[in-house]
Design brief:
Pfam families: CwfJ_C_1, CwfJ_C_2. This is C3H1-type domain-containing protein. The chain is α/β, with parallel strands linked by helices and about 600 residues long. It is built from 18 helices and 25 strands. Strand 2, helix 2 and strand 3 form a beta-alpha-beta unit. Helix 4 runs parallel beside helix 5. The radius of gyration is 26 Å and the shape is elongated. The two termini are about 35 Å apart.
């Protein structure tokens, strides 16, 4: 399937006749295009163009292709948008645009949606603390976007009103338009968001010029970001205000495609602002030296983020959703642990924050406070209904069956999505269970059998294997990860895990035994399910474990990140950087199954 074709434009400023005439012309000569994304001010600066705006809003003229806009301010904005917000079809929590008219959609506040396979995030309006309904964004909008950085999905396109502060850092001066500066009309808050979200494309307006910066590197990611700034529609200096792109959705790209870097790629502009003096050298840091490995990223001072922050009435979305907030005590919103507990039990954030939810019965979350027993008893969703949505349940339509390598009575093995190494395998219970430590005895027996088979297989290939599991207290489907390592690195595994733990400010509990199965039995006996837990089974039988407190900041990908450092693969620490095409996955699975066949306990 061909990648989607998207048109981008700068501030329309109500010049809709000129804009849509150009769009229709481009669509006819070089299209068809799937959508138009508008950044900058959408509405007129004066009432002179109000009638022109109304012709499209009222349906007297047609919008040629699906058009999405974020600059929700200007003459006529309040009237048009308040009317749109009252429409029945626009009620509730909508992030894919409030329909103003056929083919015309308002992207309100902030959010993320899928457009022809592309993941599109946006921040509408300008920064303001005035409380204006239209044309501004607030801290809640920023917090909602920051939560996206915790999600596994890569953002393809990020739309903002202004350029972000610092975009000219490290850029080629010969490409910078005359008269453009990094101070006027920029927003430092957006630079923070871009650094966290790491979109593949960042599109902005409001500077009145066209500027396509060289691609730049992102910290802790292998893909580059391309910045495109667009001039306003009908600008007097004839600057480019419309631009076409045709990006392949990141969700369908291989790791090789995602990590491709054009020759003119520069270092990150925002690490320059943070005072980095040699980003190129930092990017090349080797994990061979344990004290200089990737664990520089773990800030021990933030390990146990206590409840704090502002004393206002509104809750911090970032804290409620993830349990921590990078702004700490400087945050203007409440870090309420009780509210986070309620959120963990399925209570709607909007209900917790405002006492009501506009989505009403359309909301999939609870609109009443939950006692602890209520959550354990269930939210009204059966195990069967959860399994239909789970990627790992064999009965789910979402399961990627081509990744499965072996199926038993109680457990199965599958190739990991975005594997760290070619034979990166998951052992999973067939039943929808939250972790392997509390699984039924018959499931544990079969799991250990799989482990022993994998050890034998990898030993024959002159490798050892490391098993680890992140047991999240509110986890969904258990998965024990198995990653093979060269024999030469086996003796260093415990040291590098201990070093990573030290960087995070904790020490592992050590369970020593001659057989890993005995260590697992001890761990199962000790695990009470009252807190999250990370454990790793080392070559030789030793098990390292760490009970993770409720308010402790612990990297979800900790085990993978440590082994990526051990194997000098820091760029593969994030599975999103390692995604393969379905064809590549099938080849990898078939190769593994061919070698594993004589060891497979279910053959």
């Amino acid at each position: 399937m061909a990648p989607p074709r998207i048109l981008l434009c700068g501030d329309p400023l109500g010049n809709l006749n000129q804009l849509f005439k150009r769009v229709s012309s481009v669509n006819k000569s070089a299209g068809p295009f799937d959508a138009l994304l508008c950044v900058g001010q959408f509405f007129p600066e004066s009432s002179d163009r109000l009638e022109e705006l109304n012709e499209y809003v009222e349906g007297r003229k047609n919008v040629p292709i699906p058009t999405y806009f974020i600059g929700d301010y200007g003459v006529g904005a309040a009237k048009v948008l308040s009317a749109a917000a009252k429409e029945t079809g626009n009620q509730g929590f909508k992030m894919d645009g409030l329909k103003v008219r056929d083919n015309l959609y308002w992207l309100k506040g902030s959010g993320k949606f899928t457009l022809n396979g592309l993941s599109v995030a946006y921040l509408s309006g300008r920064q303001s603390s005035s409380g204006l309904i239209y044309g501004t964004y607030n801290q809640d909008d920023v917090d909602a976007l920051r939560a996206l950085a915790e999600e596994p999905e890569m953002i393809d396109i990020f739309l903002t009103y202004p350029f972000y502060f610092g975009i000219l850092n490290r850029a080629s001066t010969s490409d910078i338009p005359p008269g453009i500066s990094d101070s006027a009309g920029t927003d430092a808050k957006i630079s923070e968001l871009v650094a966290e979200i790491k979109p593949r494309y960042h599109v902005a307006g409001a500077k009145g010029v066209y500027y396509a910066r060289e691609p730049y590197l992102n910290v802790d990611a292998v893909h580059v970001t391309r910045f495109i700034g667009l001039a306003s529609v009908g600008n007097a200096s004839k600057q480019k205000f419309i631009h076409a792109i045709s990006p392949t959705p990141a969700s369908t790209m291989s790791s090789t495609e995602i990590s491709t870097k054009p020759p003119n790629t520069t270092a990150s502009p925002y690490t320059y602002m943070e005072g980095a003096t040699n980003t190129h050298e930092a990017d090349k840091r080797s994990a061979e030296n344990l004290s200089d490995s990737q664990y520089w990223r773990y800030d021990v001072s933030q390990k146990r983020q206590k409840v704090g922050g502002g004393d206002g009435d509104k809750l911090c979305f970032k804290f409620i959703s993830s349990g921590s907030c990078p702004r700490g005590e400087k945050c203007h919103f409440r870090h309420d642990m009780d509210a986070r507990e309620q959120s963990m039990r399925g209570v709607c954030f909007e209900f917790l924050n405002k006492g009501k939810c506009e989505r009403g019965t359309d909301c999939s979350f609870k609109h009443s406070l939950q006692e602890e027993g209520d959550a354990r008893a269930g939210s009204g969703r059966t195990n069967s209904s959860r399994s239909k949505e789970c990627w790992f349940c064999l009965s789910s339509p979402s399961v990627e069956s081509h990744l499965i390598t072996s199926v038993g009575e109680n457990c199965y093995c599958a190739l990991a999505k975005g594997p760290l190494v070619p034979d990166h395998i998951l052992i999973l219970p067939i039943e929808h269970l939250p972790n392997t430590l509390s699984s039924p005895p018959e499931c544990e027996i079969e799991l250990v059998r799989f482990q022993n088979s994998l050890r034998a297989y990898f030993k024959n290939n002159r490798k050892e294997v490391v098993f680890f599991e992140w047991v999240y207290i509110r986890g969904t489907h258990a998965n024990l990860q198995a990653i093979p390592i060269p024999l030469s690195r086996a003796s260093a595994v415990q040291d590098i895990f201990n070093l990573a733990a030290e960087k995070l400010g904790f020490k592992f509990t050590v369970l020593k035994s001659d057989k890993s199965s005995e260590g697992r039995k001890l761990l199962r006996d000790q695990f009470d399910g009252k807190c999250s837990l990370f454990y790793v089974e080392l070559p030789g039988g030793t098990i390292l474990s760490h009970a993770v407190e409720e308010n402790e900041k612990f990297p979800v990908q900790f085990g993978r990140e440590v082994l990526a450092g051990l194997l000098n693969m820091a760029d593969r620490a994030d599975w999103r950087n390692c995604k393969l095409s379905k064809e590549e996955e099938i080849k990898m699975v078939e190769k593994f199954k061919s070698g594993f066949e004589e060891y497979d306990p279910n053959r």
